[in-house]
């Protein structure tokens, strides 16, 4: 990607309208660019036959297009597909396509690596290399749909990285993909997951992020959460839950997703279940129970099915919606907390 040029796939429809004015052509040509690039995933701007030569010349001079190279692709037995995408500077990220009933969900990475340091997450062992740009995140979506040959219906920002550590680029990405005149994803089908960046959650409210919110909670006491999610030392559970309650109050009908990775002997006791029920009492939320996905060298274990079911029963008894999520793509290391590129593995 030429750093002296603006990447087109990092632009909103309104940006493209301004571009047309700058090029001295009618703004309707922004729609032609959107139709070709964002709807048909065409990366060859010179092939767009519905725009004038003047605009072609302007694009060639000022605008760049790039496609990340797919350096590896794996298909799991359950249909989950993992792609390793090489960005123009050689850095690589993983994106995952997850098949469901009448939908295809894509898990998007927002950073190369991650700085949060959750001790149960394989991605955290790589550390943080850099943030991804909005254009690179859009490129993940386009690559996923082009390579799979299927229409992605849902987007989850749950891949490599903490999305709210890359706030501005993520905000731009969300605006691009949910723009009705752009990629036109419904905000109700886009979910951002955070480990608990409390100030950024309030900022999301102010900026009216067009997406759903998921919280990676994973513990019911600060003592445990401090150990497994170090950011809790800065933003403890009480502050996080208060932020979520205010988020729900202001967003009205928006149901927040509470993610709870279950670690055998760490956070999976009936006492934990009762504490979680108390923490979430009266909250408009859905709880995803995610039994830990083991990986080589992990210091945690997956709880047995009986323990997970007993934990869920306590939550259901407390009138909470609690779902035990079956991890998909485990046989290709594409499940929750398992994303890390081969480059980092070798290092």
What does this entry look like structurally?
- The protein has 347 residues and is an alpha/beta fold.
- It has two domains: 6-64, Orthogonal Bundle (DNA polymerase, domain 1); 69-346, Alpha-Beta Barrel (TIM Barrel).
- The protein contains eleven helices and 14 strands.
- It has helices spanning 13-23, 29-39, 53-62, 134-148, 167-178, 198-207, 222-228, 237-251, 270-279, 305-317, 342-346, and strands at residues 6-7, 63-64, 69-75, 81-86, 92-100, 103-107, 111-113, 128-131, 154-157, 190-194, 212-216, 256-262, 285-291, 321-324.
- Strands 3-4-5-6-9-10-11-12-13-14 form a ten-stranded mixed β-sheet, covered by helices on one side. Strands 1-2 form a two-stranded parallel sheet. Strands 7-8 form a two-stranded antiparallel sheet.
- A hairpin with a 5-residue loop joins strand 4 (81-86) and strand 5.
- Helix 4 crosses helix 5 and helix 6 (198-207) runs parallel beside helix 8.
- The longest helix has 15 residues, at 134-148.
- 43% of the residues are buried.
- The model has no long low-confidence stretch (mean pLDDT 91).
Over all CA atoms, what is the radius of gyration? Answer: 21 Å
User: Which shape, going by the Cα principal axes?
Assistant: elongated
pLDDT < 50 runs, ≥5 residues: none
Distance between the termini: 25 Å
Strand order of the largest sheet: 3-4-5-6-9-10-11-12-13-14
Major sheet: 10 strands, mixed
Number of strands: 14
Helix percent band: 25-40%
Query: What CATH architecture of the largest domain would you give?
Result: Alpha-Beta Barrel
Q: Indicate the proportion of strand residues.
A: 15-25%
**Helix-strand string:** EHHHEEEEEEEHEHEHEHHEHEHEH
């Amino acid at each position: 990607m030429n750093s002296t040029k603006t990447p087109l796939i990092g632009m909103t429809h309104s940006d493209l309208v301004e571009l047309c004015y700058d090029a001295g052509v009618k703004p309707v040509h922004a729609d032609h660019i959107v139709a070709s690039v964002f709807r048909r995933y065409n990366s060859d701007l010179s092939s767009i036959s519905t725009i004038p030569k003047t605009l072609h010349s302007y694009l060639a001079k000022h605008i760049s297009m790039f496609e990340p190279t797919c350096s590896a692709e794996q298909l799991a037995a359950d249909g989950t597909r993992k792609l390793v995408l090489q960005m123009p500077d050689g850095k690589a990220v993983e994106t995952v396509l997850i098949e469901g009933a009448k939908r295809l969900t894509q898990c998007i990475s927002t950073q190369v690596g991650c700085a949060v340091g959750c001790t149960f997450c394989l991605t955290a062992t790589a550390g943080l290399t850099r943030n991804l740009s909005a254009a690179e995140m859009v490129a993940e979506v386009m690559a996923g749909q082009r390579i799979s040959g299927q229409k992605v219906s849902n987007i989850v920002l749950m891949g490599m990285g903490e999305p709210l550590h890359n706030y501005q680029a993520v905000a731009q990405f969300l605006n691009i993909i949910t723009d009705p005149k752009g990629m036109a994803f419904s905000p109700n089908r886009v979910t951002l997951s955070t480990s608990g960046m409390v100030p950024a959650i309030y900022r999301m409210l102010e900026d009216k992020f067009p997406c759903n919110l998921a919280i990676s909670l994973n513990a019911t006491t600060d003592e445990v959460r401090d150990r497994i999610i170090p950011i809790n030392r800065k933003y403890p559970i009480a502050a996080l839950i208060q932020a979520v309650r205010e988020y729900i109050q202001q967003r009205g009908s928006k149901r927040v997703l509470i993610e709870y990775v279950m670690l055998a002997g760490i956070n999976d006791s009936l006492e934990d279940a009762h504490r979680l029920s108390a923490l979430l009492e009266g909250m408009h939320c859905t709880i995803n129970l995610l039994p830990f996905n083991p990986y080589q060298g992990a210091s945690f274990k997956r709880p047995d099915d009986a323990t997970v079911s007993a934990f869920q029963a306590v939550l259901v008894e407390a009138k909470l919606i609690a779902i035990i999520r079956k991890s998909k793509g485990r046989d290709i290391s594409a499940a929750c907390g398992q994303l890390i590129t081969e480059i980092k593995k070798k290092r």
